[in-house]
Specification:
0% strand, mainly alpha
């Protein structure tokens, strides 16, 4: 029976993978803290989501399984501060990140343009659902102002930041791939 040595390459690879996934979790948590910091990146009362582009970028590089797990984690964090029912962002980000991970593997090119379009599609769908079910359905007077002055600018700001998150994730992913020796 062979014993595992601490200096073996397999043990080092497992330690690096664990470190990578802990780093991702820490970065998603940092994005959550920054997006909920009062006044940080706030433009005319609109604050972008930072967690959503972070987990979408992770899903683009790590695939459907890891992407879905980080999507659920990021969705739970978003649900803590959202005006929606708890679980709305958890479920939708879980499904979206799984779809993005599969899409990059089988259908899409993994570049910053795809990251931007993915964010626009996800955020557009969530903006529409949030507006329909939380504002329009109840017939609040002037509910169009929420769409025009809050929801759409938040979608635009978040989508505009997505390529930066993609570039950062690409750098991290390539660094860990070099360290683990898979490149």
């Amino acid at each position: 029976m062979t014993e595992k040595k601490w200096g073996s390459t397999q043990t080092r690879r497992h330690a690096l993978l664990a470190g990578k996934y802990l780093l991702y979790a820490g970065l998603v948590l940092l994005c959550y803290i920054l997006q909920n910091t009062p006044g940080f990146l706030e433009i005319f009362g609109v604050k972008p989501f930072l967690v959503i582009p972070a987990v979408l970028a992770i899903a683009m590089f790590e695939g459907e399984f890891v992407g879905a797990l980080y999507g659920a984690f990021g969705g739970m964090l978003c649900d803590l501060a959202a005006n929606t029912f708890y679980g709305f962002y958890t479920l939708t980000l879980f499904l979206a990140c799984a779809a993005v991970g599969l899409g990059v593997i089988y259908l899409m090119k993994n570049d910053y343009k795809t990251a931007f379009l993915t964010a626009v599609c996800y955020l557009g769908a969530m903006t529409l659902v949030e507006y329909l079910f939380y504002y329009l359905l109840y017939g609040y007077p002037g509910n169009w102002r929420v769409l025009v002055f809050q929801l759409l600018p938040r979608m635009a700001c978040t989508s505009a930041l997505t390529p930066l998150f993609w570039l950062g994730e690409r750098a991290l992913y390539e660094r860990f791939e070099r360290l683990t020796g898979t490149i």
